[in-house]
Structure formats: C-alpha cells, structure tokens
Automatic annotation (TrEMBL):
Keywords, comma-separated and alphabetical: Membrane, Transmembrane, Transmembrane helix
Transmembrane region(s): 26-45, 52-71, 83-102
This protein's record includes keyword Transmembrane helix: yes
Protein name as it appears in the record: Uncharacterized protein
Species of the source: Dyella marensis
Length: 124
C-alpha cells in the first residue's frame, strides 16, 4: 500500500535548460547573427572597396559555417540536413535566407529553454 500523504515523485527540474545542446545553440546563434551583420556590411561596402568586401565575405562565410554546424548539432539535425545547409551557404541570397530561418529556429528553441534572446544573441 502506498501512503496517501506522501508527496508526489516527479521530475521538477527544467530539462530544456539542463540540455547541453541548448548552450551549443546559443553559441551558434551568436555566430550566425554576427555572420548576418557582416553579410549586410558587405552589401554596403561592395560599391566602395573591392578588397575589403572580399575579406568580409570570407569572414562571413566562416562565421556562418561554424554557426550552422553548432546550431545543427544543438538542434539534433542529421548529417544530410547539415550538408544541405552548408551547400546553401554558397548560394548568395539563399545563404542569407538560410541564416535567417536557422536563426529563427534557434531563437524559438532558446526561448523555450528560458533564455532571453536579444539582437546580438541569447543570455540566461
């Protein structure tokens, strides 16, 4: 027989906040946000200076690839999805749209985990 006055036994911790993938999503989201900002800077600089735009394009590509891989790992995406996202980064406008969609998914996941998401990323 069980005791009717015994407290219920349930997991009370926040499982999303304790998930190590959420931290990976947060760090990847910051990289993706910085990549988007650099991408927009390329659009502004492109008419004025050619070599600076080339350097900014490389920086944006590296930031976006690192961010995509971190967010994909944190969200539990498979290898095929990761490869598709990386390939999409090499198509000029489609890469920016991919970053924006992935950023939105990361924002939703982080808000579910209790993070506050601002313009430059998430914080607890």
């Amino acid at each position: 027989m069980s005791n009717p006055y015994e407290a219920p036994k349930a997991q009370v911790g926040d499982s999303l906040r304790d998930d190590p993938g959420v931290e990976e999503v947060a760090s990847g989201q910051k990289l993706v946000i910085y990549a988007i900002l650099v991408y927009l800077a390329i659009i502004l600089v492109r008419g004025g200076a050619g070599p600076i735009a080339g350097v900014l394009a490389i920086v944006s590509l590296v930031l976006s690839l690192m961010g995509i891989l971190r967010i994909s790992n944190g969200l539990g995406y498979g290898t095929g999805t990761k490869v598709l996202l990386v390939i999409l980064m090499f198509v000029p406008l489609v890469g920016l749209i991919t970053l924006l969609v992935l950023n939105a998914k990361a924002t939703n996941r982080l808000r579910e985990a209790g993070y506050q998401v601002g313009l430059l990323g998430a914080r607890r």
